Automatic annotation (TrEMBL):
Name of the protein in question: Amidohydrolase
PANTHER family, A to Z: AMIDOHYDROLASE-RELATED DOMAIN-CONTAINING PROTEIN, AMINOHYDROLASE SSNA-RELATED
Domain Amidohydrolase-related span(s) in chain numbering: 57-429
Keyword annotations from UniProtKB, A to Z: Hydrolase
Record flagged with keyword Hydrolase: yes
Top-level taxon of the source organism: Bacteria
Entry similarity comment: Belongs to the metallo-dependent hydrolases superfamily. ATZ/TRZ family.
Length: 461
């Protein structure tokens, strides 16, 4: 693999909590960072690619911990506006659309989501793929890994699934429902085919039943057994309004229900958690269970603002996620860092705990996300860690008055445009407004053509 030297970077943010390194170089080789310091040109091997870092603020690559790539094909549709329907009415409208998706739809929507993530500095993406229409076949996760290979994305596949029929209280159409045996069998197949536990791995897999209200109890029990046997992490939706239903059916709220099944602990993280009490958050902190906070859906869903100050005060592991386009019409994790911070400021007057500083929100999107995914080789810029980073050229009017504090910049000011450079595993995958090794126009045309096989080009559904 070719070595890369980022020379004379204006600022290097190695971690949200470490001092900024001014006027430093970064040397990368074989997918990892080998050195950070001034004047590293003499240490670079012959033939190393030199990137001029003048004006660049360099950061650890963002880590997206919750997404639904397939939902990129259902964006900007007024007929699906959250404000016009109850949650149940909305689900009844959108799930039949999801049920139309083909194998090609899952591939191209993954390309679309990953491209937007990369443009905005994300280098590792976790996708919670729970939509498996029977006609789409059994290779949906495989096609996502194919898309990740194309884009150069470090990819964690959350193999989701739904097993409870609609007749027994779930929101899932029968054409999207699987049996527990089929779900577990395909989880095992995907883990065996793709999961790589080695340092700097580009492919990993998690067992991720969609959510307790849409699955049988046995689905979660078998998920725990499989994950422990294979040494992979667990993930699901928890605490997004379903606790009263779980309490009615199982006699306890969702956190207690999941813990009773063993679906909790340092190898487990939940998405959302906005409805949870402080006592429930304390239980999660004690168990080591993490949270993928998705700030953007809060605007659309109009529910409670997730109590990030309490989570931070209690020591929960917190990461950030975009969530799917059904409740967030973009795949821009960079924007989520800013919106997460601003939302907590909005709610601060009613909170017991103070809003964490802007640096904490950058940490959630980097080291926090790495922790949720069980990774110690991503989330910061240090020798031996993955060469995953993004850079912003701050020699623009947008940044006048901000450049003294690179760490707070993203959360407090916000980055409104694509970054200038994204590197994943030591390879530049986005630079100066283009994917160096890809034809974005051709990818756009292929995705649009596939989209219009299931939805009209204009109007309606």
């Amino acid at each position: 693999m070719t070595a890369v030297l980022l020379k004379g970077c204006a600022a290097v943010v190695t971690s949200a909590y470490d001092p900024v390194l001014w006027d430093h170089d970064i040397l990368c080789q074989d997918g990892a960072i080998t050195a950070i310091g001034p004047d590293l040109a003499r240490a670079a091997p012959a033939g190393a690619e030199i990137i001029n870092g003048a004006g660049l603020f360099v950061y650890p690559g963002l880590v997206n911990t919750h997404h639904h790539f397939f939902q990129c094909f259902v964006r900007n549709r007024a007929a699906l506006d959250w404000t016009r329907y109850s949650v149940i009415e909305w689900l009844d409208r959108i799930y039949p659309i999801f049920a139309r998706l083909t194998e090609d739809c899952f591939y191209h929507s993954a390309v679309v989501a990953m491209a937007e993530l990369i443009k905005h500095g994300c280098t590792t993406a976790f996708d919670h793929q729970y939509c498996f229409p029977k006609h789409a076949g059994s290779r949906i996760i495989d096609r996502q890994f194919e898309a990740a290979d194309l884009m150069g994305m470090r990819f964690h596949a959350g193999r989701g699934g739904n097993t409870l029929p609609k007749s027994e209280g779930s929101t899932i159409p029968d054409e999207m429902r699987e049996t527990t045996d089929a779900f577990i069998a395909d989880c095992a197949r995907v883990i065996d085919a793709y999961h790589d536990p080695a340092p700097l791995a580009m492919r990993q897999v998690a067992v991720a039943p969609c959510q307790p209200v849409n699955c049988y109890r046995e689905t979660f029990v078998e998920s725990v057994a499989l994950a422990h046997d294979k040494g992979v992490i667990l993930h699901s939706h928890v605490g997004e309004g379903e606790s009263p239903v779980i309490e009615q059916v199982h006699g306890m709220r969702t956190v207690d229900y999941c813990e009773s099944l063993g679906f909790a602990g340092p190898d487990t993280f939940y998405a959302h958690c906005w409805e949870l009490s402080r006592e429930e958050l304390q239980k999660m902190a004690a168990a080591g269970t993490g949270v993928a906070h998705c700030s953007e859906p809060v605007y659309l869903v109009g529910a409670e603002i997730t109590d990030i100050p309490a989570m931070d005060a209690l020591g929960l592991r917190v990461g950030l996620g975009c969530d799917g386009a059904a409740s967030n019409d973009n795949s821009n994790l960079m924007h989520c860092v800013h919106s997460a911070y601003m939302l907590q400021c909005l709610a601060s007057a009613s909170r017991q705990d103070p809003v964490p500083p802007p640096a904490a929100f950058l940490a959630y999107a980097t080291e926090g996300g790495a922790s949720l995914l069980g990774r110690t080789d991503i989330g910061a810029l240090r020798p031996g860690m993955a060469a995953d980073l993004f850079a912003i050229d701050t020699r623009k009017l947008d940044y006048v008055g901000t450049r003294h504090d690179p760490i707070s910049l993203i959360a407090k000011v916000g980055i409104g445009a694509p970054v200038d450079l994204t590197m994943i595993n030591g390879r530049v995958v986005w630079q100066n407004g283009a994917f160096p090794h890809l034809d974005e126009g051709a990818l756009f045309a292929a995705a649009e053509k596939t989209l219009h096989t299931i939805l009209p080009q204009t109007g309606g559904l």
